[in-house]
Specification:
By secondary structure, the chain is α+β, with helices and mostly antiparallel strands. It has one domain. Helices cover about 20% and strands about 30% of the residues. It is built from 3 helices and 7 strands, in the order H-E-E-H-E-E-E-E-H-E. The protein has a 7-stranded antiparallel sheet, sandwiched between helices. A hairpin with a 5-residue loop joins strand 4 and strand 5. The protein is globular.
């Protein structure tokens, strides 16, 4: 029994202070990657939702990918990134269900007067990433190579 207590107290003293440290966010192409819509600033979320005219579900949340109308949102957040250097910019990607399921990519800049859209358009990621596996690197590459079809469709 004494050996058990010695091992137990040794284990406690060895693990004391070994709390999990938060990991630094992943950085891609000058953007700090964000994996939850809740982590995007309120004014940026509000600007996107104002343009979509409906709330956007978070990753893994309820989502209607079809054109059969029900009470689930037809848009769902996929990934975003915040510029690590000025200007204060956010690059977001979200799914859009309905007839012709696709994705949207939006680049916004935050200013003292609010968020303004710099670029926005429809996009289809590489086939192996369609669904919740879209990588932020692919979003950046789609914007860089002109694969994002700039339009006024939200």
């Amino acid at each position: 029994m004494k050996a058990f207590w010695l091992l137990l107290t040794a284990g406690i003293s060895l693990t004391a202070g070994c709390e999990a440290q938060p990991t630094a966010p992943k950085t891609v192409a000058g953007f700090s990657v964000v994996s939850s819509f809740a982590d995007v600033p309120t004014d940026v979320r509000a600007e996107v939702e104002r343009r979509t005219s409906e709330p956007i579900s978070d990753v893994g949340g309820p989502f209607n990918a079809t054109d059969i109308v029900d009470d689930r949102p037809t848009r769902r957040f996929v990934v975003a990134g915040h510029a690590v250097a000025p200007p204060d910019r956010w690059l977001l990607c979200y799914e859009h269900g309905g007839h012709g399921y696709h994705y949207h990519v939006v680049l916004l800049e935050r200013t003292v007067s609010g968020s303004r859209v710099i670029e926005a358009g429809q996009w289809l990621p590489p086939a192996e990433e369609i669904g919740e596996a879209v990588r932020f690197e692919s979003v950046v590459e789609g914007l860089r190579t002109g694969e994002v079809a700039h339009d006024n469709h939200w």
